[in-house]
Amino acid sequence: MALSKPHVLIVAGSDCSGGAGIARDIETLAGFGLRAALAVTAVTVQTHDAVRAVELCEPGLVEAQMRAALEANRIAAIKIGMLGSRAIAERVAGVLADHAGIPVVLDPVIASSSGRPLIGPDALDWLRENLMPLCALVTPNLPELALLSGSAPALTEAEIGRQAKLLLAAGTRAILAKGGHAEGTEAADLLFRPLVEPLRFTSVRLQGSRRGTGCMLASGIAAGLATGKALETAIAAAKKTVSAHWCPA
Asked: pTM for this structure?
């Protein structure tokens, strides 16, 4: 019997160090008072400095996990992180198409913080053309935005906007371009949607490397959408949570 409390379905890889991936997603959702259901896409062996091994799950197993979670619980939002391969992405997209009423937040994990590729280059075009249009929001950092748009890394907000608009023109509904890889004392994330002026969400820039911030942000936004918040409100609340976690008062 499905539980009455809303769940967020996390589709992502495990991180044995606990710094990112599913462990960080569950922690974030718990902070918002929500439960998580899981579909594991990969098992990784990593420290806070390097990814040592990645074992992808069989695509049909990922799909089966998603469908069982959707059957067992009241899934109010879906957060997608590491997919690992085009074959897995195709199975995930098939499930999303069958549950089009559930808002989806995609954190397009293309490489680890240490630089190791986490999805094949053959998957990028497919993600842009087939998976991203199924999502309520896609949250790339600036290197990911460049790769997805087939561009050089953006150095200005005008370039960020141009790259985001390329993805919107390809069918993506909303892009939150994360500014953590930019310069300056403030980190500005920019929300782009068709026919709407961009919105800016700023916070104090975190010093040094912080693993799992992208996971936290996307999961926090999914938590907001799961509880009926508007997209802008969900983003603002998630940004506040990420900042408070790393820079507590």
From this structure: 0.92
pLDDT level of residue 1 (50, 70, 90 thresholds): very low
Non-local (6+) Cβ contacts of 197 within 8 A are: none
Q: CA 152, CA 150: separation in Å to the nearest integer?
A: 7
